[in-house]
Amino acid sequence: MASSSSAKTTISNAKFEVEEFDGPNNFGWQCEIRDVLSQQELEIALEDKPSEMEDKEWQKINRQACSTIILCLAKDQKYLVIRETSAKELW
After folding, report:
1. What is the rounded distance in angstroms from the CA atom of residue 87 to the CA atom of residue 45?
2. How many angstroms separate the Cα of 15 from the Cα of each of 22, 50, 56?
3. Residue 46: how many CB atoms within 10 A of its CB?
């Protein structure tokens, strides 16, 4: 009999659906995006770069987080942030 502490649940290739942000009522949207970033292990990009992290690794995480955030914006909102390259600023 296996102990319950050895049981693991794995979710791979999970698909998350987030309604596009299209205006100022963003509380629910931000919660959902934070959850998606957390699942992708990208939530750190919403903070300042940790001093011990390599620049190349930080750039990759930031770029991925920016992409996730931008993909969840309505088209008219994307135009407002098209030149933004910081996930923290997008947030």
Report:
1. 6
2. 21, 29, 27
3. 20
